[in-house]
Design goal:
This protein has about 300 residues and is α/β, with parallel strands linked by helices. The chain has eleven helices and ten strands. Helix 3 runs parallel beside helix 4, helix 5 crosses helix 6 and helix 6 crosses helix 7.
Length: about 300
């Protein structure tokens, strides 16, 4: 089954190298990928446009944490102007992987507090965008305590004048991760005081690995999400295939169409009427040329 999907996807990738496809649906489909922030925002914007994207994601600093680069206000201004001229959608800043807001270790939580607070304040210079955060791992304390600690930490950080919405990402459920169930995400949101400052990013690989059947019954998954959290809280999706079968709880991303989710289910997600206008961000194991081919393919199949 997977072998047939891979052959089909590779054929479409070859046939989709048409510059006209880059413009197809650009005002309705916001599609991009994870880009390096090393050369600044303006460079990321230009790179995104070159590969057919009109949004993108980036790490706010080294993915392992540490001090962020000094903000270049001129670079930010150039990017904001470029994004407006090219009708870009909102963009997604991603917190470092080392951030764990619900660790049993107090110093680890303090580190998470420092990083998230600094990132949210820095994002005020790019108003109206998103900050993506993994809800954390409870490290043996139990899901309930993990939820309480993450919510408590975010309540100490989020402020009324923040111009960025923090997105809690749906997780695969490996180890002691919280957030693999929609109910767990909602329990965090319920405890947040400034609810207009939080939303959700749904990762297709993660929900597949967590046991949500987006391949066989996407409508049911979205109905569950809407009933438990509300689709109005869903602002972005990470579009990834999975190296793992349904319910594996492992979280290993695959190129679109080459994993257990498959191209048909990926495009049902992108084309779903309830998801129109959301951001779609690729986090597949690719270099820029691979992302460009995937973006072109998605634009070709976008309805």
């Amino acid at each position: 089954m997977i072998k047939k999907q891979v052959i089909f996807t590779k054929k479409l990738l070859r046939d989709s190298a048409n510059p006209d496809l880059i413009l197809k649906g650009i005002k309705m489909l916001y599609i991009g990928c994870h880009l390096s922030a090393t050369k600044g925002y303006f460079h990321m914007g230009k790179t995104a446009k070159e590969i057919g994207a009109n949004t993108f994601q980036f790490f706010t600093r080294n993915p392992r944490g540490g001090k962020a680069k000094e903000l270049d206000i001129e670079d930010i201004a150039k990017y904001l102007s470029f994004a407006e001229e090219n009708e870009f959608g909102k963009i997604v800043a991603h917190a470092p992987y080392t951030v764990n807001p619900c660790s049993a270790d107090k110093k680890t939580r303090e580190f998470a507090h420092m990083i998230i607070k600094d990132d949210m304040n820095r994002m005020n210079y790019l108003p109206g965008n998103y900050y993506n955060l993994h809800p954390g791992s409870h490290t043996g304390q139990g899901v309930e305590q993990g939820i309480n600690l993450t919510a408590e930490l975010l309540n100490h950080i989020l402020e009324p004048d923040h111009k960025t919405v923090l997105l809690l990402e749906t997780m695969a459920g490996k180890g002691s991760e919280i957030g693999s169930g929609f109910e767990e995400i909602q329990m965090i949101i319920e405890k947040i005081k400034l609810k207009d400052k939080v939303g959700v990013c749904l990762d297709t690989c993660h929900v597949n690995d967590a046991g949500y059947d987006i391949v066989g019954n996407l409508d049911d998954v979205l109905d569950k999400f809407n009933k438990i959290i509300g689709l109005d809280k869903l602002h972005a999706l990470h579009i990834n295939d999975s190296k793992n079968p349904f319910g594996a709880r492992k979280d290993r991303h695959e190129k679109i169409g080459e994993g257990y989710i498959g191209m048909e289910a990926i495009m049902k997600t992108v084309n779903h009427p309830k998801l129109q206008g959301k951001l779609f961000i690729l986090e597949t194991p690719n270099e820029l040329d691979g992302y460009q081919k995937e973006i072109e393919l998605i634009r070709q199949l976008f309805k």
